[in-house]
Design brief:
By secondary structure, this protein is mostly beta strands. It is 9% helix and 41% strand. It has four helices and 22 strands. A hairpin with a 2-residue loop joins strand 16 and strand 17. The chain is elongated.
Length: 301
């Protein structure tokens, strides 16, 4: 049987300050800020206050600046597992208890899903990771750990890829619908930004940049059966239906796998033989692409 213990909850004064929101805790969602070890943390879904508890998208936990922190999402059980050193935390959507190791801990508010993101009580997770958590009600700011602000300059190629993914898209007249959008994988040819593939569950699309727009050239429905696709050495899944003109590509690709529920991106390289190598984890906000220093090793000169 699991043991149950209680972590420190928000101070009474913090609870009392929720009154300034006129009883509508969710109204403050857009103004709540989170600061981690590397400074302010952004997210595409805003944190919000519910009955004195600040809930944040789980991807914010991955951006606190803690080395060797890993997260995984179990879609069947609707739960997130977070490992950090010897600490293992499990938080299940709509469950009143969080698990630290094998001990259950009552939650001030259970985890929830909002706009496709898992929202967790930040104080519970932060303190479970051994980090101090402070709530400034006046500034509507949560600070987790000590801030040591740093910056990271993105390369010109990364910035161009980010720009390209934000371009207006022109779709084919006929469409193939995906089964869901919880996991999205974006593929770029090594060293390039003017063409890319996007896989959303059981669909893949191919776009080329033309006259300031991303034009859809090809789309296909896929299964998870592993096959060898002619002209697409980087893509190992069986194609069962396609529209448009299938491209024929060569060379290595970079990929960014965005797991929507926890907003975590896993990135890496797929070589010319189709062998994938994961190189790291990055910000999971929609449209965010990061530098992959190893990419230069795969560029042909």
């Amino acid at each position: 049987m699991r043991k149950f213990k209680t972590l420190t909850l928000f101070a009474t004064v913090a609870l009392g300050m929720s009154m300034v929101f006129g009883g509508q805790n969710h109204a403050a969602a857009s103004s709540i800020k989170v600061i981690g070890k590397n400074g302010p943390i952004s997210s595409d879904v805003a944190p919000y206050l519910k009955k004195g508890t600040v809930l944040v998208p789980i991807n914010i936990i991955g951006k606190l600046g803690l080395s060797n922190l890993n997260m995984s999402w179990d879609n069947t059980r609707k739960q997130v597992r977070i490992s950090y050193g010897k600490v293992m935390i499990t938080v299940k959507v709509n469950e009143k208890y969080g698990i630290i190791g094998d001990e259950g801990t009552p939650l001030a508010q259970p985890a929830q899903i909002k706009h496709g993101r898992v929202m967790v009580p930040v104080r519970f997770v932060g303190e479970a990771l051994g980090e101090p958590v402070a709530w400034d009600a006046k500034a509507q700011t949560v600070t987790v750990g000590s801030s040591t602000v740093s910056s990271h300059a993105k390369s010109a190629l990364t910035l161009e890829r980010i720009r390209v993914l934000s371009l207006p898209r022109v779709s084919l007249k006929e469409q193939i619908h995906a089964g869901g959008l919880m996991t999205v994988v974006c593929y770029f040819p090594v060293g390039k930004a003017d063409e890319y593939f996007v896989k959303e569950e059981n669909r893949i699309d191919y776009y080329k940049v033309q006259q300031g727009r991303a034009v859809q050239i090809w789309a296909a429905r896929t299964t998870y059966d592993i096959v060898e696709n002619k002209g697409l050495p980087f893509f190992p899944y069986k194609i069962v239906q396609e529209i448009g003109e299938r491209p024929s590509v060569k060379g290595s690709f970079v990929y960014y796998k965005n797991i929507g529920a926890i907003a975590a991106v896993y990135y890496g390289i797929i070589n010319e033989q189709g062998k994938a190598k994961q190189l790291g984890e990055a910000d999971g906000n929609k449209g965010v692409i990061v530098d992959i220093p190893e990419e230069k090793n795969y560029m042909k000169h």
